[in-house]
Amino acid sequence: MFSAYRERRLLPFLSIILGMAAVLPTPLHANSREVSGMVEAKASLPRVLVLATGGTISGKADTRSAIGYNAGAVTGEQLIAGVPGLEKLARLKVEQISNIPSQNMNSQVWFRLAERIRAAFEKNEADAVVITHGTDTMEETAFFLDTVIGNSKPIILTGAMRPSTAISADGPANMYEAVKVAATPQTRGRGVLVVMDDAIHAAHWVSKTHTTALETFRSRDAGPVGSVDPASVRFFAPARARIHVDLPQNHQLPRVEVIYAHADMDAAQIDEAVKTGARGIVVAGMGDGNVSEAALAGLDRAVKAGIVVVRSSRVGDGYVNRNVEVDDDRHGLVASLDLNPQKARILLQLLLATDTTTPADIQKAFGEGY
Ligand SMILES: NC(=O)C[C@H](N)C(=O)O
Questions:
Q1: Where does the Asparaginase/glutaminase C-terminal domain start and stop, copy by copy (predicted)?
Q2: Which of 222, 274, 291, 304 is buried most, with the most CB atoms less than 10 Å from its CB?
């Protein structure tokens, strides 16, 4: 409900206390919590529902080593309390959906998120949603939600590369910018976005590209769709048409394997996927989605067994187009165009789960070219 949003009463003696807060030698986080708690969020501000799922943004140092930490150790509520100024951007309500490192992200959490967001928008409980998330699988959650939620209200994912206890933790700045983008009217109708390190990325194109750097998210080919700084939000690319698939009603996704191609590749993993009951295979192919002759023969066996095979690429940029080096028509294969293997897997899972099963129809959903 509206009243449940973080609206804090303006305390008497605000200016005196704020002045004290500025000179007291309290730690930054405790100080920020105090200050933000004393400033009332205006009723005219947009309502942003924060859904916390875990990740390094909720990480805390662990004594096992100088750099060790556990992701998903701080709650969403604590996280918000450490970001001064949010109350000037939006009225926030925080809910904890999970508290896991995103290497453990799974379809149950995806369905929980999708249902919660759908309900919040349908019942007009929120004007936008911000999801705090680990960075390892952020692009996958973003793409899943972008595909199943048709609403034009903003949905922003953000996270951090450094845990909350690190020197120069990036979580608070990313959180601030995510709420700023969520609260900006121009963000409507742009699908699910990832806001990290001053950049705004579309779910379709964004990928994590560096193991540890703050500047890890990159959008393939054309780059980010916008930028954000403490003063402004700017979009410099038009909104992309979204692929839409209905949320499967039974909340189940079929098994789809991603198989990574390499020199000297045989068909062992492909045959194993067929034997163990995969409904689909996505190949992270070499270059333009290529595989060896031996692997292609394995893919032929998979297609004959009724498994849908999508060719994607292990290369980070460019399109995998139909019938270039591989005769997709003859082999009955689908080309992923600009979806990377992990996102192609999600789209194939959703299509199979909603009874789109022929390679021709699946190719249509992936797109047939621009
Ligand atoms: N920076 C991060 O968030 C990495 C962490 N492993 C996660 O994805 O939860």
A1: 255-366
A2: 291
Question: Does residue 101 have its Cβ closer than 6 Å to ligand 1?
Answer: yes
Task: Say how far apart CA 139 and CA 330 lie, in whole Å.
Answer: 32
In the chain, domain spans: 2-235, 256-366
Q: For 152-176, write each residue's pLDDT tens digit.
A: 999 999 999 999 888 899 999 999 9
Do 256-366 and 2-235 have the same topology in CATH?
A: yes
CB of 158 sitting under 6 A from ligand 1: no
Which atom of ligand 1 lies nearest, measured to the CA of 71? Answer: 9
Asked if ipTM goes beyond 0.90, one says yes
56 labelled catalytic: yes
Which residues does 262 contact at the CB level (< 8 Å), separation at least 6?
A: 286
| Residue from 26, 75, 132, 135 carrying the catalytic annotation | 135
Q: Which CATH architecture has domain 256-366?
A: 3-Layer(aba) Sandwich (3.40)
